[in-house]
Specification:
The complex is a heterodimer of chains A (312) and B (443).
Chain A (H helix, E strand, L loop, with lengths): L19 H19 L3 E4 L4 H14 L7 E6 L5 H14 L3 E5 H6 L16 H11 L3 E3 L16 E4 L27 E4 L7 H11 L10 E8 L2 E4 L12 E8 L10 E3 L5 H10 L4 H5 L9 H7 L4
Parallel strand pairs in A: 1-2, 1-4, 2-3, 4-6
Antiparallel strand pairs in A: 5-6, 7-8, 7-9, 9-10
Helix pairs in contact in A: 1-2, 6-7
Chain B lengths: L2 H7 L2 E9 L5 H11 L5 H13 L8 H4 L3 H6 L6 E6 L3 E9 L5 H9 L3 E7 L6 H12 L4 E7 L8 H17 L4 E6 L23 H7 L13 E2 L2 E3 L11 E5 L4 E3 L3 E5 L3 E9 L4 E2 L1 E3 L3 E6 L10 E4 L6 E11 L5 E2 L3 E6 L2 E15 L4 E4 L3 E2 L4 E13 L11 E5 L6 E7 L10 E2 L9
Parallel strand pairs in B: 1-3, 1-4, 4-5, 5-6, 21-26
Antiparallel strand pairs in B: 2-3, 7-16, 8-9, 9-15, 10-14, 11-12, 11-16, 12-13, 12-15, 17-23, 17-25, 18-22, 19-20, 19-24, 20-21, 20-23, 24-25
The chains are: A alpha/beta (312), B alpha+beta (443).
Organism (chain B): Streptomyces ficellus
Protein name (chain B): sulfate adenylyltransferase
InterPro entries (chain B): CysN_GTP-bd, CysN_II, CysN_NoDQ_III, G_TR_CS, GTP-eEF1A_C, P-loop_NTPase, SO4_adenylTrfase_lsu, T_Tr_GTP-bd_dom
């Protein structure tokens, strides 16, 4: 906590005012502890992306000096950045965590899921995710979704009830008042929990800086072979890119989000440090999804549709 | 840290709510706050422009920024609370943007429940109308500490000071009587941006702050040592490891006031007492902590404490009770009836309860009371008497929003039925008018 070193506007803020990062941190920790107190089998979705890394950090703080009373679940698209998988495995070992992996590749190999013509595997994650939740009987599933990311997410609750098919019905959400979260659910149903609901991309980065949290290197500017598709820089890889007509070039880039390689775009950047990344985001005129996610460009309601079907 | 980062990290957070309809220019005001504080980014604006064009609208409809669901865009209305985020160098803001119509009272109540400030919009041509009184009543009922009256469309009344002064006086009188502690009236034109972010060149007679200036400077905290300190226990932390064989800490978020190491405390409902030996504030050991910090408290004595218990200072603990009298806002589509068995969720404790009586229903537009309605339906505000199976350490909502509030939940399907506030509805001396129920109430 840095309450003691922050400098407030003395005219308007009493010594009891918290900084915005302390407020957001306290709220997220409260959410983690509510779930620990009320659910039997919670799990944290962990992709190795910055939001899930911040979630894990908050969970570690919430229960210290005890261990986190939850396991981790990674829905592995098979199109991973090697740096991210390496980070994931190192983190699991460092904190002695339990990791479950639901593999999209397994479902494709078994013929349960079919590869899409565009090679994108993000939409394919819903079935492995739902089946992993059913198989392990998880009753609370922490996701790193933020309301500032996307307009359908802006209407999402902190505690979001899902049926046995993981479906989200935006018209039947429970009103959420004060800090009273209603986690009642029937057998087979589960609750998606979003501790970072009120955080923005900039908050996440400022918190990473304040807490000195380590991130996978792909979040910082580096030289990489990329090609252009739909106005985004994609990494060349086994997943099916580039096509013959798509020339590959070496550029200084970094990733603002980490997802499936086939639809996560990089941005031109020379930000090699956290401070430089924060300065870049502060000045950016594009949202992180607008800049980097092909799957959200499909339609005005692309995210709402995926969420209804059980997506993160 | 760079200077920029340091400045940004040191900002405080203000949660506020807006209530109003498209007709009052609420979407325009919200759009302007987001746009002029540069919180709308290029791709969002392009998406809104494209969507507006495809609907045959010439100018970008900023309501499309917040109306995120397909049903809302198709019907052109805000249904659900939309949370928006923006920042200035001085503050981070969380805006709960809520619809203003009577059939969405529950959404307004939801948005106001966590707000420290509420913006009520009126059209300068119409002045204080029924809807304005309802919005003032919601803010008063939910004990929102600061209310801003934004008198919009001043351009349509030739920026006339007397028009503004009359509306401001009427509203201030009404809201003060309801017990709203602080009211700030600001004449604006959201369409042209007058007094929203930049001061108006058309209203020299107004010397107060713009809407954004006020949002940036309104106090977000006060002297918490003067409040009743309350700590609901969420979770007991017991590592039982070689490194921490005997650690036993009570984790929770301080709901009100401040706690100090060395302080004598009572644990409710058991009534046992002990002394705080340590406060762990997420990795840092501190001597004092205050609301709304999440901390872990350790006590001198090994007494039986679990989730749902409340820690409070020895000399200032709330009485425990099984009889709750409260005002509720009914938020579910299914009704609440006398005799209904429910679950009552209060802080970290959920207990069985029964609705003993619904003495009255309240119309927020004119504060009239309708005795013995028998049931409450969606968006109704009413008084209830509830008997709980176990004692609750309940404050009045007027004393503590966090420990004076509760939910009523349907035990069968888990639906949140009603949001409750213990104690009297309003801080005012102005007693609601009692009148017989009649036809035509559209709650």
């Amino acid at each position: 906590m840095t309450t003691s070193v922050t400098t407030f506007d003395e005219e308007t803020d009493s010594p009891f005012a918290l900084s915005h990062l302390d407020s957001l941190e306290s709220e997220a920790v409260h959410i983690f502890r509510e779930v620990a107190g009320e659910f039997e089998r919670p799990v944290i979705l962990f992709s190795g992306g910055k939001d899930s890394i911040v979630m894990l950090h908050l969970a570690l703080k919430a229960f210290a000096p005890a261990a986190i009373p939850f396991a981790l679940l990674h829905v592995d698209t098979g199109h991973n950045f090697p740096e991210v998988i390496e980070y994931r495995d190192r983190t699991v070992e460092k904190y002695g965590l339990r990791l479950h992996v639901a593999s999209v590749q397994d479902y494709i190999d078994r013929g349960v899921l079919k590869e899409r013509p565009d090679g994108t595997r993000n939409p394919l994650q819903t079935v492995p995710l739902t089946e992993a939740i059913q198989q392990h009987r998880f009753d609370a599933v922490f996701g790193g979704g933020r309301r500032d990311e996307e307009k359908a997410r802006a209407k999402e609750r902190v505690f979001s009830l899902r049926d046995e098919f993981s479906q989200w019905d935006p018209r039947r959400q429970r009103p959420e008042l004060w800090q009273l979260y209603n986690g009642r659910h029937a057998p087979g149903e589960h609750v998606r929990v979003f501790p970072l609901s009120n955080w923005t991309e900039l908050d996440v980065w400022q918190y990473i800086e304040r807490e000195g949290i380590e991130l996978p290197q792909i979040y910082f500017a580096h030289e990489r072979e990329v090609f252009s598709r739909n106005g985004m820089w994609l990494t060349a890889g086994e997943w099916g890119g580039p096509k013959d007509t798509e020339p590959v070039e070496k550029r200084m880039i970094r990733y603002r989000t980490v997802g499936d390689m086939s639809c996560t775009g990089a941005v031109d950047s020379d930000a090699t440090t956290l401070q430089a990344v924060i300065a870049e985001i502060t000045a950016s005129r594009l949202t992180e999804r607008g800049a980097t996610r092909a799957d959200d460009k499909l339609s005005e309601a692309a995210m709402e549709d995926r969420k209804r079907e059980g997506y993160f | 840290m760079s200077t920029t980062t340091e400045q940004l990290s040191a900002t405080t957070l203000l949660r506020f709510a807006t209530a109003g309809s498209v007709d009052d220019g609420k979407s325009t005001l919200v759009g302007r706050l987001l746009h002029d504080s540069k919180s709308v980014l290029v791709d969002q604006l392009e998406a809104v422009e494209a969507a507006s064009l495809s609907r045959g609208q010439e100018a970008p409809d900023l309501a499309l920024l917040t109306d995120g669901l397909r049903a809302e865009r198709e019907q052109g209305i805000t249904i659900d609370v939309a949370y928006r985020y923006f920042a200035t160098p001085r503050r981070r803001f969380i805006l709960a943007d809520t619809p203003g119509h009577v059939q969405y009272t529950r959404n307004m109540v939801t948005g106001a429940s966590t707000a420290e400030l509420a913006v009520v919009l009126v059209d300068a041509r119409n002045g204080v109308v029924e809807q304005t009184r309802r919005h003032a009543a919601v803010a008063a009922l939910l004990r929102v500490p600061h209310v801003v009256l934004a008198v919009n469309k001043m351009d349509l009344v030739e920026y006339a000071e007397p028009v503004f002064a009359k509306i401001a006086e009427e509203f201030t009188t009404y809201a003060s009587e309801l017990g709203v502690p602080e009211i700030t009236a600001i004449p604006i034109s959201a369409l042209d941006g007058d007094n929203v972010v930049e001061p108006s060149a058309n209203m020299d007679w107004y010397g107060g702050p713009t809407v954004l200036e006020h949002l940036e400077t309104v106090p977000v905290s006060h002297d918490l040592t003067a409040c009743h300190a309350r700590f609901p226990v969420q979770y007991v932390i017991r590592p039982q490891t070689a490194e921490h064989p005997d650690y036993r800490g009570y984790a929770g978020q301080i709901a009100a006031g401040a706690f100090r190491v060395g302080e004598q405390v009572t644990v409710l409902p058991s009534g046992r007492t002990s002394t705080i030996t340590a406060i762990d504030a997420l990795g840092e050991s501190v001597d004092i902590a205050w609301a709304p910090q999440s901390v872990t408290i350790r006590l001198a004595d090994d007494i039986d404490i679990s989730r749902g218990d409340l820690i409070a200072p020895v000399g200032d603990a709330p009485a425990t009770t099984r009889d709750v009298e409260a005002t509720v806002c009914h938020v579910a589509d299914q009704p609440l009836v006398v005799g209904q068995r429910v679950l009552l969720k209060h802080t970290t404790r959920t207990v069985k309860a029964i609705v003993k009586d619904i003495p009255s229903r309240l119309t927020l537009d004119d504060l009239s009371q309708h005795p013995a309605p028998g049931q409450l339906v969606a968006n109704d505000i009413g008084r209830v008497v509830v008997r709980t199976a176990e004692p609750l350490a309940l404050d009045t909502y007027a004393d503590s929003r966090r420990t004076g509030s509760f939910l009523l939940i349907d035990p069968a399907d888990g639906t949140t039925l009603a949001a409750g506030m213990a104690g009297e509805a309003f801080a005012s001396a102005k007693a609601p008018v009692v009148r017989g129920d009649e036809d035509g109430w559209d709650f």
